[in-house]
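Example record

One chain of 331 residues, shown exactly as stored in the release files.
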Amino acid sequence: MAGKILVTGGAGFIGSALVWALNERGDEDILITDFLGTDEKWKNLVALRYADFMDANDLLSAIGRGSDLGGVTKVFHLGACSATTERDAGYLMRNNFDYTRRLAEWSLEKGARFVYASSAATYGDGSQGMDDKDEDLGKLRPLNMYGYSKHWFDQYAQRHGFLNQLVGLKYFNVYGPNENHKAQMRSVVNKAFNEVIDSGTIALFKSYKEDYKDGEQMRDFLYVKDAVKMTLHLADNPDAGGLFNIGSGEANTWLRLANAIFAAMGRAPEISFVDMPVELQGKYQYYTKADITKLRSTGYDENIMTLEDAVADYVQNYLTPDKLLEPGVSA
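Predicted structure tokens for this chain:
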């Protein structure tokens, strides 16, 4: 589809990686919006090629006036508060639900393709399954307010009959370059790399469930390069609609992840276990695994990087040399 591409949250982690992937395929007519604030996510923008930047507050004003934003035909709405520890429920609902609702309704009115970030956090503890083909969204019980703010929009779009006209992306545990600005919300790979540099060890949370030994809690870890490939595939497929799991399709233990980090750094593993903060103990996901059958059914046939290969790429080509994603530069 010809026309301008809007990427909200375009200076953030997945947003800037998406712009990088767009640049890699020759797309540069891109409008980026974000709240830049005082952190250093602006650095993610430096090497990227895009047509214009707009403050995220100004975007809401523009669509409120009915602007077509210079002919935007495709919207990637990746901007959100992604802090799972955020406790200001009103802020999360304004930023993650209301902003998404207004932009989605504008996109539908203008005939623009709307692709937005939902989250695997909407699945809660997984007791109700992690099936993106199950339309009974009301049975899901997110464990934190972040997950609920994402879940609320999924339900809103379904109740109002337009969810299948959109593409909602239930991202699992995404990690990779361009996440340095995320402070405590950085991936374990990013934080553990620095732990190893500082102390030679990686500290993992103890388990508080008898079914899981320390370090054997499991996650679906997805490299950001694969995440943006999946995102672009669904955006480009006009027949794709509704919610899609965006993950590797594998559940890996924290121990396997830690060992992959040490291997990528050429060091012998030194792993310790620490108490989990009390405020997280009742909100912790012990097992996540994306069923990506629905994604595959749309024709997505790309190989997904193994955990070890992806961690090695991240550690050796980005973290060790302290580099960000840059179009036209091979890792």
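Notes: The chain has a mean pLDDT of 94.
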